[in-house]
Amino acid sequence: MSQELTKEQQKMLLNLARSAIREVLEETKERKTAILDPIFREKRGAFVTLKVDGRLRGCIGYPLPNKPLQETVSEMAVAAASQDYRFKSLGREELPRTRIEISILSLPSEVKDPAQIEVGRHGLIISKGLAKGLLLPQVPVEYGWDRETYLRHACLKAGLDENEWKKGVTIEVFTAQVFSEED
Hints:
Layout (H helix, E strand, L loop, with lengths): L6 H19 L19 E8 L2 E8 L6 H14 L15 E8 L3 E3 L11 E6 L2 E5 L2 H6 L3 H11 L12 E5 L1 E5 L3
Antiparallel strand pairs: 1-2, 1-3, 3-8, 4-7, 5-6, 5-7
Helix pairs in contact: 1-2
């Protein structure tokens, strides 16, 4: 993984994410200026997770480093608030109760043996054909899953049978630097 962000850099990205969501909800035309720190211009994969009153409200991201980090976080914050198919768009009245979490991802690498997966350290990408599912490394910890349960849920997320991981799928792992407004 590239250089980890400092607490100050984390705070800057969280503020950027909140500002991006606020701009869309309030339909303002002015865009926040780009952050000058060079680390935010590095292309990095990242996810933005939104929780309202402690409950998941949206989570969207780019698993691969397609865009500069500040663009990815800004775009994915707005997408998590308005484009996660599992939820209706975030309402303006929900924003004060919304907590933002950002996960900055390492590049994924394939594992051949599921025993190599470390719950709480590795995020998972399960794929077979056109089916693909991703779970962030904090997910199994939040739900108290063991490795097998984690693999089953990753298969379900991909739209596969929950035991497909035993029958032949591509399993990739990645790590993430995870931080939130609650830290």
